[in-house]
Amino acid sequence: IVKGDLLYTGKAKEMYATNDPDVLWVDYLDQATALNGKKKVAIDQKGLLNAHISSLIFTDLAQHGIKNHFIEQLSDRVQLVRRVKMIPLETVVRNAASGSFERKFAVDHLMKFDEPVLEFFYKSDALDDPFINDSQVAALKVASAETVAEMKRQALLVNDRLQAIFAEMGVQLVDFKIEFGLTDEGQVLLADEISPDSCRLVDEKTQKSLDKDVFRKDLGDLTTVYKEVLQRLATVEGSQ
Ligand code: C5P
Predict the structure, then answer these.
(1) Is residue 71 a contact partner of residue 23, using CB atoms and an 8 Å limit?
(2) What is its EC number (predicted)?
(3) What is the pTM of this model?
(4) 3-state secondary structure at position 147
(5) What 3-state DSSP class applies to 210?
(6) Residue to mutate (ligand 1; options 98, 103, 198; most atoms within 8 A of CB)
(7) Residue 138, SS3 per DSSP
(8) Check: complex ipTM more than 0.90
C-alpha cells in the first residue's frame, strides 16, 4: 500500500489517500488539544499509544459483531482504515455524569444513570460543536431518520462491549464519543478512533482519571496515564 495525498488534518490525526480508493492511511500525532483547539501541546508517544489502544478496541469490537472502519495497524502510529463518508455528528454515550452534562444540569460528579444517556453534537469548529437533537438533525438534513436510528443502535452496542472491556481492566467507563460514516452502499459504519482522548475512564480503585481529563484539567502526566491504559488493555485482549 502506498501513502498518497493529505486529505484532512484533524486535532490529533492526519488522513491520507492511498493507491487503493477504498483505503485511507491514518497518522496518529503526538499532539493533544482541548477547548476546541485553543489549548494545544505536543505530547511524547501519544500518537503511538492512541493508535495501539484504538486498534485493540476496534479489533475487539469487530470480534464481537460491531463492524468498523479499522483494517490493520501498519506501524506504531499508522492505521489503515476503510474510506467512508463521515456523518458530521459526534455521538456521545454517558453512563454517569461528567463534563458538559455535569455542568449543564449541576448534578453530582459521576452520578450513575439507570440507562445510558445518548446525545448528538453537530461537528462544526465555527459553531463549537453544538448539541443537536433528532429533529434538528432532520431539519438540517445532516442524516436520515434511519441513519440516526442505526447510529443509536450501534452506539448502545458499543457501550455494552466497551463497559465489559473496561470493567475487566478495573476501569469505569463514564462516557465516550464515537463517529460514524456511510459506506458507498449506504451502510452506517463506526469510524474515527476510540481512545482515552474520546472516553472518560476512571480507575475503580483510586477514582483517578485515566483519560484526556488529565490534560484538560492538568491532573498529571498524560503519557504515563495512557501507557497504563494500553498496558491493561493489552493484558485483557491478550488473554482472550
Ligand atoms: O464534554 P462532554 O462531557 O460533552 O464529553 C463527553 C465525552 O465525549 C467525553 O468522553 C469526551 O472526551 C468526548 N468528546 C470528544 N470530543 C469532543 C467532545 C467530547 O471526544 N469534541
Answers:
(1) yes
(2) 6.3.2.6
(3) 0.97
(4) helix
(5) coil
(6) 198
(7) helix
(8) yes
